[in-house]
Amino acid sequence: MESTADAQPLIVTPNVRIDRILETTLPMFGLDEFFANYDPAVHPVVTLGPDEYDAAAAKIVLSSSSYLVRVPGLVLVVDTGVGNSRDRLRPMFRQMDTDWYEQLTALIDPDDVDVVVSTHLHMDHVGWNTRLDGGQWIPTFPRARYLFNRLEIDALGDDSVTQSLARNGDFVADSITPVFDAGLAEVFDAPLELTAHLRLEPGPGDTAGHVVVRLVDEGRTVALITGDVFHHALQFEDPALTSRFSSLPDEAVATRKRVFAESADSGVPLLAGHIAAHPALYLEREGDRFRVMG
Ligand SMILES: [Zn+2]
């Protein structure tokens, strides 16, 4: 398979380096299928590029991104995609075969990763927590601490997770349970400062325990890794547009507005989970809407 790796790091400052691993970019969902409150009169798709909307398929295009973060004393992986070889129920995720692991190992030895964190425990953010080895799911990062927000672990028995498992297949069994079985899991409460350069902050909405990763250097934020605070370009123009798969829609809108405002007001780039068109997003205001600069 042809590598989809980015040639250059996304962010380089004196103490922070961030590389992206791009697992997939695919037309995935119809507009009504994905958004709970889509209105064609309010959210026209004619302005969207082909890496945002596939007009022939009538589906929004979503990518799946992971981030490798290096700060002094700590190597972190944020979000681990869908993963290969999984018995997922949706055909687009079933038995995927991407070069995610090859992209990773071109950047770093998995033994050198200190911490793994998922912005939230949805199927498409935990997959490469594990890999298949001799028919067993084993941790991809054998020396890492895998951090799980207590709110996400507490929610695993709730209706929203049960529904997610029913839609997707049992990703907990192959992507989360083996990490606990290996003794590599640690439960944390957000906010959590991992180093002076790296903080995990609450960003509730897509799930109750969703976190945003803040990178700080020389006293200022140099990037926010935003997971599923937003999913698609249509939400810049209308932050109230919300995914059907978000557990807490009102909190999702509030978090999205807060994060968009910080980017527009401070110039901080947003590194998103599913935006294909822009590896690093710089937003500006347009009234009470936002748009991507440049
Ligand atoms: Zn996602």
UniProtKB/TrEMBL annotation:
Superkingdom to which the source organism belongs: Bacteria
Alphabetically ordered keywords of this record: Hydrolase, Metal-binding, Zinc
Family annotation (InterPro entries): MBL_superfamily_lactonases, Metallo-B-lactamas, RibonucZ/Hydroxyglut_hydro
SMART domains given in the database record: Lactamase_B
Domain Metallo-beta-lactamase residue range list: 63-274
GO molecular function, one term: hydrolase activity
CDD domains: metallo-hydrolase-like_MBL-fold
Annotated family: Belongs to the metallo-beta-lactamase superfamily.
Protein name: Glyoxylase, beta-lactamase superfamily II
Species this chain originates from: Herbiconiux ginsengi
